Amino acid sequence: MAVVRPQAVRLDVERKRITDAVRMATYNAESALARLIAPHYARSHRFPTAF
User: Fold this and answer.
1) Which of 27, 34, 43, 49 is the most exposed place for a label (fewest CB within 10 A)?
2) The pTM of the whole model exceeds 0.70
C-alpha cells in the first residue's frame, strides 16, 4: 500500500466498520431510489442505477 500511495494510512477497525456501514447504507438508498424512479423512465431496464 505504501508503494502505491505513500500518504495512505490504514484505518483502525472501528473507523473502517463505520465507513463500510455508511457505504452500504448509501448503496442501499441509491438502489431503493432507483427502483422508485425506474417506472418513470423508458430505458430504466438497461441501466437501473444510471440516472
Assistant:
1) 43
2) no
